[in-house]
Amino acid sequence: MTELLEKAKNALKHAENVTALTGAGVSAESGVPTFRGSGGMWKNFRPEQLAAPEAFKKDPVLVWEWYNWRRELIASKKPNSGHYALADMEKYKRFTLITQNVDGLHHLAGGKNILELHGSIWKVRCTRCGTTKIDRSSVLTVPPRCSKCNGLLRPDVVWFGESLDMRILDKSIDAALSADVFLVAGTSGVVQPAASLARYAKGSGAFVIEVNMEKTPISIEADVTLIGKAGEILPMLQDGWIEGR
Ligand code: OAD
Questions:
Q1: How many CA atoms lie less than 13 Å away from 131 in the CB half-sphere?
Q2: How far apart are CA 218 and CA 131, in angstroms?
Q3: How far apart are CA 98 and CA 124, in angstroms?
Q4: Catalytic residue check, 118
Q5: CA-proximal residue: ligand 1, atom 31 (nearest)
Q6: Is-above-0.85 flag for pTM?
Q7: For each successive 10 residues of the chain (245 residues), what is the average pLDDT?
Q8: Which ligand 1 atom is at minimum distance from the Cα of 230?
Q9: Using a 6 Å cutoff on CB, does residue 34 contact ligand 1?
């Protein structure tokens, strides 16, 4: 582990351009449940019954009740040392943070250049007029309505079977292709297209560092896989980018 950690720190030290991809594991130590694995949300809930456009069409109240539950839970959580370490990187490197997380904890930690690939739980979108707005109330009156046209509002997140926002995806691919170091933390690497970003980065010459509690399909692309908690390992890597300033 020490040798791998040193290798990763050295790559970060010499990198000019760093891109990170994060997943639910980065927020696990803040108390936000992951999707898969023991204690993961998809053990208790069926994605297609809650996080799918068909589910919303069939029962918007049920879907909104689930989102209210998640909003209330996330509102009570704070960023952890992993989020803060990544936010610190912006001071030293050209840095893009791509996240699959919708919880907003990277922003709360002070991160600025963030691409929210799967949207944000704190944004709502009108299903009639398309207006989007930020609404940070922990619980919304169910089902919420658009103040402009009275249309039904939905969470501005990407559901199963939906396409990602192409502008955000294009920026994410550009950031992966231009990175000297691609740092992947806390994702199972099974949901596309996010899972392919490490391969794009690797293909264009990036050094790929993975931080996870276990090996994942991304480990094949990784030059270094550091097994452990993101909240412990990311701060350990911090010396690397601070030394390289
Ligand atoms: P997952 O729940 O699939 O995976 C979480 C990953 O984090 C696993 O590989 C864990 O081993 C790892 N992990 C858990 N705790 C950790 C810790 N403290 N430190 C480091 N790693 C840890 O979450 P995602 O990969 O983010 O999509 O899931 C991807 C997408 O699937 C989500 O964005 C969501 C979901 O369906 C949508 O809702 C569109």
A1: 13
A2: 36
A3: 20
A4: yes
A5: 191
A6: yes
A7: 92 96 98 86 76 93 93 96 96 96 98 97 97 92 95 96 96 98 97 95 98 97 97 93 78
A8: 19
A9: yes
